[in-house]
Amino acid sequence: RPLKVAIVGATGSVGQELLKLLSTRKFPIRELILIASPSSVGQVVQWNNQKIIIQALNEAVFNNVDVVFMSAGSGISFRWTPIAVASGAIVIDNSSAFRLDPTVPLVVPEVNPQAIAYHQGILANPNCTTILLTLVLGPLQSRGEINKIVLSTYQSASGAGTLAMQELQSLSRNFLDGTELSSHVLPYSLAFNLFLHNSSMQSNGYCEEEMKMVNETRKILSSSSLSVSANCVRVPILRAHSEAVNITFNNPMSLDEVRAILTSSTGIEIIEDFDGNRFPMPTDVNGRDSIAVGRLRKGLNDDNNLELWLCGDQIRKGAALNAIQIAELLLSRDLRK
Ligand code: 2RA
Fold first, then answer.
1. Considering only CA atoms, which residue is closest to atom 4 of ligand 1?
2. pTM exceeds cut of 0.90
3. 94, 202, 253, 278: which could form a disulfide with 273 (CB 3.0–4.6 Å)?
4. Where is the catalytic site (predicted)?
């Protein structure tokens, strides 16, 4: 039956992608309500030949709502997700608020769809970098246990929001014009520059973004002993994240075997031309559902080692598409609660 759906954070880059995908994927909606910050309340949004007026966030807004896509940051999620669940809604939360809560499934539908069975009203969308990584690790784990992951990320400005994407463009223009370069949204100028991810620094010397990859990857792959080490970097790219990944299995694997697995895995395309030195680039994945994987090669010093490179659209599969795929999975199982 068509559903009443709410998007909290409707004006953000992920909220906008949710609107686009809910329409193109023909998600069964009988009513869509859009909620955003006070500065956006009253704005009219055109969606599926309807004019929808943006509403303020309050308790009543969740009445009779079946599914809430929460995409307004952890603070809003912490406070309003329990209220939405108490109103009878199922919440798919794009923030980090509940991702490590043992009662909350953390889901990449292609990898651990079975996890949705234990939800109690909240399901968490993993961090964008984790979605892209586990989409590849999931199928590979089926061929043999993965002991260790070492990776570096090359994260686009979109991960810091729409204003950060705009700032990258304006600072880059300023750079070329030789004018003033101070950043306001990002911690430093990203014009022809890069910097280590500026999420809060933990006492162990890793930042919050890196620890998200450690903890979320372990939860999604159900492998608490998996060793993960991440180095997260913000780079001057608009909306696609890239990752250089080094995987150690507990047994040797052949590249043909790995290629065959990834080629047949949903949501992954292989872009790989060693002769032409052509591998995935952010421009290959912008606005696309699939992520691109390439440059598969065995480690130089360890037969159990595999190295690869991936690129994926941070706003789409890294956030909005994965959230909708979780909702579609719930629908296929009749929104069990
Ligand atoms: C980032 N993954 O890219 C985080 C939040 N989307 O900064």
1. 159
2. yes
3. 278
4. 128, 241
